[in-house]
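User: For my dataset I need records formatted as: sequence, then structure tokens, nothing else. Please produce one.
Assistant:
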Amino acid sequence: MILPEYPPLNSLQIMKNNKKFILSGLLILLITGLSAFKIYDDGDDFEIAKSLDLFHDVVREVRLYYVDDVDIPKLIGEATKEFLKKLDPYTVFYSENEIEDFTLMTTGAYGGVGAAIIKTENSLLISDIRKGYPADSSGLKTGDEIIAINNINVTKENISEIIKNLKGEPGSTVTLQIKRYGQSNVFKKTIVRKKIISQAISYADILSGNTAYIKLNEFRRSAASDFKRKLIMLDEKQKLSGLIIDLRGNPGGLLNEAVEIVNLFVPKGSKIVSTKGKVKSWNYDYIAQKEPDFPDLPVTVLINNRSASASEIVAGALQDLDRAVIIGQRSFGKGLVQITRKVEYNTRIKITTAKYYIPSGRCIQIVDYSHRNPDGSVGKVPDSLISEFKTKNGRKVFDGGGVKPDIIVKPDSLNKFTKDLINNYEIFDFCTEYYFKNKTISKPENFSLSNSDYQNFITFVLKSKTEFQSEAGKIAKKLAEVAEKEHYDKNVTDKITDLQKNLAINKEEALLQFKKEIIPILEREIIKRYYYEAGVLKRETVNDKLIKTAKEILRNKEKYQKILSGINE
């Protein structure tokens, strides 16, 4: 076996959350020639060698003597999956045919058409179009249904597999058959794939009060240089009085990119983050290498429970160094570092090698993967093990649970009925209809649905065959099914039927009751059809309550300084 190389420090990464486990091949590498792999040292090495030899023998016996044909690589892939599951969700093997996923993860680049797809039960719908990319320039629209890809009809059985055909080498072509709202005929579009680069920054602008706003989606390669360039451009356009960095929903990415962004605001020589793991020679302190470009610019950072990893380094380091006010909800809590290493046959493994510690000395990892419950599940770090730390100015902060904002703003919660409208595509389908019936709308920041528009939505939903049930209604339905199966007398079943009727949701009443929370969702979806994602984000800078809170804090210099000094604690 080839000994793995030590990774360069700039390959240390904090990778995205919830990546799928890509498995086939890893254990094949282990059992190839394994009979010669003997380590007779004392301790664990000998036990590991014994276990690998045993695994090799089991695979050989199954291959030679099992009664039916067996897909050995598939079985080994499943075994690898279970093996890696016992570690953490971030340790992943990338087989040769999955290297494209690895490249996308680190660079944000792939060959495709520039359209996002949603899968309904039996169909593929275009859910988003990226401005200026092939799908957009070829005339595809959000809401279009894809009937076939490369002359292969979309069916319930192949829907997951066929969607992969949208990706391919830049310059290659893909042919789509499209069914569009209001048109009876299916039409074809042959699209030339292009290199699609996921934008680290989806929106940046100057808001009221000379406040800059930058929405950072991920920490891929060049994210820091993109961020710096955008901020300098905004400052040259209009001298800035403050900055809002929006990291909500940002799952992380490359550690070095996070370090460079923090260095834009903190003095040279400041410790930003440290990594500590089993291999002591890989432990490293990341220090600000340059004098900051914006040493005095007031900064706020927006986070939520989907801000993870590199996002937490930026938010946590700026908080620990008392350089920014953090606003929103507690972050995800991923304090684990991954590196990627080349292994045989053009494959890679992404493996957790360390934990990271932000300037106060705290680690914000929330789940303790090293101590599992008897059933294999994992729990959060217990309160008894959570420790207190101090920021540069002496403010109290704590480890073991993500980054807690300086100002907590609770997220809006949606009623189950509204969620059902979203999940059953009632809102999506209505907005498709609206788009094709209205050629233009007003600017994103000015657009609003009229009362007649909302009445049209009510009519649209009432015509729909979708049933809306409360949780209690679902239980009553299940109770009715059980009662029928167990042959209860009519008196009992009639009472259950009456209960179902009483618990049934009146769609029209619910649409009126939850109008205030439904309308903004409709407006955002409609704006996206005309002005793309940038239009939606522009609208949010006007209405979003976290952004409003950030602007208020930046305007109130005295309150801003009090928070950072800890006076209000």
